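Box 3.1 A note on notation
Throughout this textbook, protein chains are presented in two layers. The first layer is the amino acid sequence; the second is a token string describing backbone geometry. Keep the layers aligned when reading.
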Amino acid sequence: MPSGPEGLVDHPAYRTELERARSLLFAHPGRWRIIYHYDGDGIASASCAVRALQRLGFPVQATALLAVEKPRMVELLAATSTPVLVVDTGASWLDLFAAHPHPVIVLDHHQYHGAPQPPELPESVAFVDPLDWGVDGMNEMCASTLTWLFTVFLDARNWDNAAYGVSGAIADRQHVGGFKGLNARLVEEARERMFLTKAVGPPLFGGSLEEAIALSVDPYLTGLSGRAAETRAFLTSLGLEPQRPPNGLDPAEGRRLIEAVSMRLVRQGVRPEFVAAFHEDGWFVPSLGLRAEELANLQNATGRVGDPGVGVALALGDAAALGHARDAERAWRQGVLNGLERVEKGGVNSLRALQWFESPDGSLAGTQAGLAMNYLLNARKPVFVFTAARDGLKVSARGTTWLVGQGLDLATVCRSAAGKVGGEGGGHRVASGATIPPARRDEFLAIADGLIAEQLPAFATEAAA
């Protein structure tokens, strides 16, 4: 039977943190500013929060943060004379919020210094992080599922935020291999409440099979992605009409396509978990008539092309937002595709324990790095991508859960290496980022390479030999 959220986690900090945040919010029923990260998880988190606060009758102003931008956060706090709700960022800047003259609630799933023991904070600040309850923020709960959960603590009607909780988790790649831990419990609860249903078959989107495969970035298929003529020949060889809609295949045809794509991925050297992901069923949102994977792409794309507010407006039922989001998704997909083609054709630079490349696409670089890591690059080394930013050189670092299992911790690497060159960084073990002075890139790389070599046994063994 469906239940309430109070008993989902058996840890005292779980209810303590969420109830403290709830009490702080209810004690200040006026206008709130919501500050969120501009990626798919952040936009989905903001969607949950805005929907819930509007349901309470609280006026809201939502503002996106475009990177690891502490100076920008300082500016926003100085310009804000109301309470603030921060989602999908902020765990590393708790000192800033303690100094803010108005209440602040921080909902974040990232690593912070001293985790899982948060620092002492004034009564005006509520900090909620699943790490404090023994829940892994890398693969068991992201910011959107955390914000969705918080909104259910506010009002049980907010179980209908399931669409955005799940889409953000998909954007954060926490669905690969199936949802786990607290994510899985929340998804099952939403399924019982009929806010989600199972979607059969791989997530292929586009007006035709040809479009879906030729523009595919997840998975990225070498020799097919970005290549319409080759895609037509591939589909024809399988007895499939290239112009048929992706959802028009019968079960036998679907299995034939899945097996053929899987074989190509295996030949590319793609790790088994990413091959298996193409076989997995997904989730469908009945109220929106969309698969959750498509919703994740739409919201993520709006942020990556510079219009994160459109992604939030989509969740609020804005009639024009869906069309704008689809335009953004096409632009985003083409930009990611262009970057992956550059990597496929031009390769990357390689150090002892990491690989790296440059990208001119600032807002797309992290996505390019993650997908290149999954489908194109040496699976034994994490990848770093560098892009120019207004406040320095932006770094996006990506690994895999397999590398994390070997000892990789990119959050520690980025935080330490960036700090030693006058920058700042952090994130998750599998995906992290930093901002550093442009002139110190090579020094940053050398430090990061050494740290990763110490973390991964294979490189430590090589060094000893």
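The chain is about 45% helix and 15% strand. The first strand starts at residue 32 and ends at 37.
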